[in-house]
Specification:
- The structure holds 3 protein chains of 3 kinds.
- In chain A, helix 3 (77-112) crosses helix 6, helix 3 (77-112) crosses helix 10 (251-283) and helix 9 runs antiparallel to helix 10.
- In chain A, 72% of the residues lie in helices and 0% in strands.
- Chain A folds into 2 domains: 3-48, no CATH class; 77-286, MetI-like (MetI-like fold).
- By secondary structure, chain A is mainly α.
- Chain B has one domain: MetI-like (MetI-like fold, Orthogonal Bundle).
- Chain B is 79% helix and 0% strand.
- In chain C, the strands form 2 sheets. In chain C, strands 5-6-7-3-8-9 form a 6-stranded mixed β-sheet, with helices on both faces. Chain C has a 3-stranded antiparallel β-sheet with strand order 2-1-4, with helices on both faces.
- The longest helix of chain C is centred in the last third of the chain and has 18 residues, at 186-203.
- Chain C starts with a helix and ends with a helix.
- Chains A and B meet through helix 1, helix 4, helix 5, helix 6 and helix 8 of A and helix 1, helix 2, helix 5, helix 6 and helix 9 of B.
């Protein structure tokens, strides 16, 4: 069997194993009345509630809930969440594109100027060791106070911020990845800085750019969801998670929404990964170690 | 993925301090000047001097906030890292785990795990520190698991052959070869996790919970138009994040001295 | 020196009575396949105690495979191997041989001295004995001053000397070397050749040495075994009757050139040159 086929089977096997563990825990807790057997010590997570208020539903119940109306009647949860996904994806896309561009430009600047790299790179790195996501409420509220921007732009700005860093670092690494001898060869042709950039360094950097964009694709989704939950606008997946999380009798919907958020993250990552595979296949070149 | 990234960062040339320090000074001065000259509203950007003043005045509140949030971050950091290491180490023994867990890690690496905060609030109680700890631990778990698997597999074939030529038992191969060879990878994950754990703890604060937490302050002060107070809290969190990161970096220099050359 | 055929007969006739007559390594009709590829085809080889036998041939002739079969790092598909009068597995668990690879294969996290101590540690030696022995070995390879350095601070040649010290630390009966100087520059290589001969003379260890350098094989060995690829088999065994002790002057002797030519002609005769 091909390696990819075996990987897929292993992945499915482990996910199935996790689902079985989930159900086993559920059955165990129900059987023991949420206690460790023979003791009066409570299990860490209690299995209780019924209908939409279940705290530990069967694994399939959140999925089924997507097909049911999510409050009283009318729109199904799935349809409602689809609308929220659309709203969130707009922020993700804007943040991802702008963040990638900014990162690419900054990386190119650093590759061009040692002084710029030395002056700014420490802050680019330091900015990732600190919880800048704590700025989420500040950024979102700040942006929302500017009337000329749409309401989702604050969240997009947070996404952009989280995307730009991996892109900067990987652009810089990629542009520096061309072998010194190739650089010398280009110089021996008296190629200008621009020619060397476009004919040598950028092509050499492409695999690295994808590494940066794959990290960015995930970061953009995290940024959007965290941004939404701190915005008072109450739209998007993050806001939905927040509101379902506050009211305890909606817990099955909370599980369903979190699941959808996870799928959005995976979809975002996979889109870039598929693009990467298509481009690198056309290239047939070696990528960086991943 | 993120772990690999920070390892990459380390490989970049260490910058000399002077241009960086000058930049910091220049940025702060420019920031102050711009805010004053253009009379920028604090909701957008307070002046650094105003943030500093609030910071100094608010030290007791900030310390309390850091204790609440930092405690969850630290506990989650330790538990998640231990869990990730244990599962990663177990994976070297069983082939299904070894081959299956890497893609599982990639899948979960693409998922916004911090969004599970409300689920843990539901399970463990919004006012229990364990719900925050659980989110942090889960976020930290996957990078550590992946890096442990990668690290324990990083010993070269010829090193393994050497140990085989000594007829070394499995236990000694692990203790003397695989484990030390994995340390740079484990520390790579710890460095990433240091940053991630503070992030996860704050986001978990945002989802409700403790009244005195850093995330709670940032959110409520912002809603109450106390913008400099909110900024000061973020600055305090950044300092905490740097501290944690620095501690890990120091521990790394001490435990992985051979990677310094 | 008995020919392989004669030695094979002796072994098949029964266990040897005189210990000295027993070869340190006896390979009998060994075949090893990897899937479709036959890496070794019906190879027989004897290595007498105290001898220095080089295996030489182009890539794919199975010389490294043969070394690994002797070391019990690979199992033969068919045939029999005896090392120090035992099965290779027994010889490995008894730590009867030391091994040196093309890469120095040092542990980055250990100092030079602790690298040499590694096998002693695995054999349960106590710290004082271990340390004394490691220092002794480092003196033998002239690296005493570098005991506290880390491998990354050493040149390629020095790293390989550490690997040799490590392989000899527990005084094994047999030293197996897999292109140990293959990654080094020619000048370093010649110097290490001299050092290795010196160590061999002092320790009288039996050596099986894999190389793809004809001059190196002739200069070092008591016997040169020429192998050919696809499938890997022994073409010829050439005894080297150069005078000892050998030194830089040896490489200028007419006999040296004759032997080098003889090895080369053997390879050319098989269409390998």
């Amino acid at each position: 069997m091909s390696r990819r086929g075996r990987t897929a089977i292993n992945l499915v096997a482990i996910l199935a194993g996790l689902a079985v563990l989930w159900e086993a825990y559920r059955a165990f807790a129900l059987a023991t009345g949420n206690m460790w057997p023979g003791t009066d010590v409570a299990l860490p997570v209690a299995v209780r509630g019924s209908g939409n208020a279940q705290q530990f539903p069967h694994v399939w119940e959140p999925v089924l809930a997507l097909g049911r109306p999510y409050r009283g009647g009318g729109e199904t949860l799935g349809a409602f969440l689809l609308g929220q996904v659309g709203y969130t994806l707009r922020e993700v896309l804007a943040g991802f594109v702008l963040g990638s561009l900014l990162g690419f430009l900054l990386g190119t600047l650093f590759a061009h100027s040692r002084l710029a790299e030395r002056s700014l790179m420490p802050y680019v790195i330091a900015s990732q060791t600190v919880p800048f996501i704590a700025f989420a409420p500040i950024l979102v509220v700040g942006f929302n106070s500017l009337e000329s921007f749409p309401r989702w732009s604050g969240v997009a700005a947070l996404s952009m911020y989280l995307v730009f860093f991996p892109m900067t670092v990987n652009t810089l690494r990629g542009l520096r990845s061309a072998p010194a001898t190739a650089e010398e060869l280009m110089r021996s042709y008296a190629a200008s800085w621009w020619t060397r950039l476009w004919k040598l360094r950028v092509p050499a950097a492409v695999p690295y750019l994808f590494v940066g964009m794959k990290i960015g694709a995930t970061a953009a989704v995290v940024g959007a969801i965290v941004g939404e939950l701190s915005a008072p606008s109450s739209q998007g997946l993050g806001a939905a998670i927040f509101s379902f999380g506050r009211v305890s009798n909606n817990s099955v919907q909370l599980f369903a929404t979190t699941l959808v958020a996870g799928l959005v993250g995976i979809a975002s990552f996979s889109t870039v990964a598929l693009l990467e595979r298509a481009v690198l296949r056309a290239y047939a070149g070696a990528g960086p170690a991943r | 993925m993120t772990a690999a990234l920070l390892t990459e960062v380390r490989r970049l040339r260490p910058p000399s301090a002077l241009p960086a320090a000058l930049t910091a000074l220049a940025v702060l001065v420019a920031w102050e000047v711009v805010v004053r000259v253009f009379a920028i509203r604090p909701i957008l950007l307070p002046a650094p001097s105003a943030i500093a003043a609030t910071f100094v005045a608010d030290v007791p509140r900030l310390v309390r906030a850091l204790v609440v949030t930092g405690r969850a971050a630290l506990l989650g950091f330790v538990l998640g890292s231990l869990g990730g290491f244990a599962v990663g180490a177990a994976a070297t023994r069983w082939r299904v785990l070894r081959e299956g867990l890497i893609p599982v890690g990639v899948v979960f690496g693409a998922v916004p795990i911090v969004a599970t905060a409300p689920i843990f609030n539901l399970w463990l109680g919004a006012l229990s520190i364990w719900s925050n700890v659980a989110v942090v631990a889960l976020v930290v778990f996957f990078p550590m698991m992946i890096n442990t698997i990668t690290g324990l597999a990083s010993a070269s074939d010829s090193h393994r052959e050497l140990m085989r030529s000594y007829a070394a038992p499995q236990r000694q191969v692990f203790a003397k070869l695989l484990l030390p060879a994995s340390l740079p990878f484990v520390f790579g994950a710890l460095r990433v996790s240091a940053a991630l754990s503070v992030i996860a703890a704050v986001v978990s604060d945002f989802f409700g919970g403790f009244r005195d937490s850093a995330g709670f302050f940032i959110k409520t002060l912002m809603a109450n138009a106390d913008y400099t107070g909110s900024w000061a809290t973020v600055v305090a969190l950044c300092l905490f994040g740097l501290l944690l990161y620095g501690a890990v970096a120091l521990a790394e220099r001490w435990s992985v001295p051979w990677k310094e050359q | 020196m008995t020919s392989p055929e004669e030695a094979a007969v002796t072994v098949e006739a029964g266990p040897p009575v005189v210990a000295a007559a027993e070869p340190t390594v006896a390979v009998r009709h060994v075949t090893r396949t990897f899937g479709e590829v036959t890496a070794l085809s019906d190879v027989s080889l004897d290595v007498a105690p105290g001898s220095f036998v080089s295996l030489i041939g182009p890539s794919g002739c199975g010389k490294s495979t043969l070394l690994r079969v002797i070391a019990d790092l690979l199992e033969p598909s068919s045939g029999e191997v005896v090392v120090a009068g035992k099965t290779p597995h027994r010889a490995r668990t008894d730590r009867d041989y030391g091994m040196v690879f093309q890469k120095a294969t040092l542990f980055d996290w250990r100092t030079v001295r602790r690298n040499v101590e590694l096998p002693l540690e695995l054999m349960g030696w106590d710290r004082t004995r271990r340390r004394a022995r490691a220092d002794e070995m480092l003196a033998l390879v002239e690296l005493t001053d570098f005991a506290k350095h880390r491998p990354a601070q050493l040149s390629g040649g020095m790293q390989q000397r550490v690997a040799i010290a490590r392989a000899l630390a527990f005084s094994p009966k047999l030293l197996l070397m897999d292109e140990p100087f293959g990654a080094l520059d020619e000048i370093t290589r010649e110097r290490l050749n001299l050092e290795l001969l010196d160590i061999w003379t002092k320790t009288r260890t039996t050596v099986v040495f894999v190389t793809h350098s004809i001059p190196e094989a002739v200069f070092l060995s008591t016997d040169v075994v020429v192998m050919s690829p696809r499938p890997g088999r022994v073409l010829r065994r050439i005894p080297v009757d150069l005078p000892r002790p050998r030194d830089t002057g040896t490489r200028e002797l007419d006999r040296y050139f004759e032997l080098v030519t003889e090895v080369r002609e053997t390879l050319r005769g098989a269409g390998l040159l």
